[in-house]
Write a structure and sequence with these properties.
This protein is of the alpha+beta class. It has helices at about 40, 45-55; strands spanning about 1-5, 15-20, 20-25, 35. Strands 1-2-3-4 form a four-stranded antiparallel β-sheet. It is globular. The chain binds zinc ion. Zinc ion binds near residues 7, 10, 29 and 32.
């Protein structure tokens, strides 16, 4: 699923790819990438995604 203009860094379109491990979230414009576990997803909303991409210090959960 794609959420338009949701990137916290560049305001670009963000792609959500869910699988059994969680959700891979990345920006189609700037490449900003984050992985969210199912536990994190429970508390996730658009602002959380934007904040995570803006900070980007935690890059990998796998
Ligand atoms: Zn971006």
């Amino acid at each position: 699923m794609i959420k338009f203009k949701a990137c916290g860094r560049c305001g670009g379109d963000v792609y959500f790819n869910a699988d059994r491990r969680g959700v891979d979230v990345y920006c189609l414009q700037c490449g900003s990438r984050r992985f969210f576990s199912p536990e994190e997803m429970r508390a996730l909303n658009a602002q959380t995604v934007a904040d995570a991409q803006a900070n980007e210090e935690v890059q990998k959960a796998a």
